[in-house]
Amino acid sequence: MPPPDSDRLAQLLALLFQAHPWHGVTPAPAADGALTGYIEIVATDTVKYELDKPSGVLRVDRPNRFSSQCPTPYGFVPQSYCAEFIAERCMARTGLLGIVGDGDPLDLCILTEKSFTHGSFLLRCRPIGGLRMIDSGEADDKIIAVLEGDAVYGHLTDLTDAPDGVVDRLRHFFLTYKQGPAAVVATAGPDAHRSVEIAEIYGRDEAIATINASYADYRRHFGEPSSRLAELRQLLASG
What we know:
239 residues, Inorganic Pyrophosphatase, 6 helices, globular
């Protein structure tokens, strides 16, 4: 058990500072796989928002160059990371070689009947599957989850239960959202020679295994989140 002063320090930090959406929010996985996700983009956004990693503030990454809009709320799993374990899982499942993690938190797509006006919020969701996307040799998985309690999608337990059109729409978006008219893509732009593929569509069990691999990657690169308070106490005491 942590000493009482550690509990008080945690309370004060929670009162005085907003948690960093990536590092300061625990995903709090439940026995049924439910977890907390952070949403950056909603379906009506015509600008790509992305978390500014150093500050934890949502920023404009770029205006959408073409007409595609993300079909679902989109964000990431807190305290996750795509590095060696994610890459190893991708290579083992697909037989491909030379894959690396994309160096970002694990992406999350939320199936829900509800519409949202803006991003930068937390929600509870249950993973039901995912898309194993590979972007220019980088593993870039998209976990598909349902909003907990959603009247239309909340009962789904596996991606095989979801309507085919929903999955097809997500596949199409991620394969094409950076593309424009063929002449434009062929002649100019940073994505002209980009290679994107969805190597596998998987169900709930593999989604949970992939999420766990991303937690392991996070701990390898950023340390154990539960140890940070003790480290902070030591630094404050030594100062």
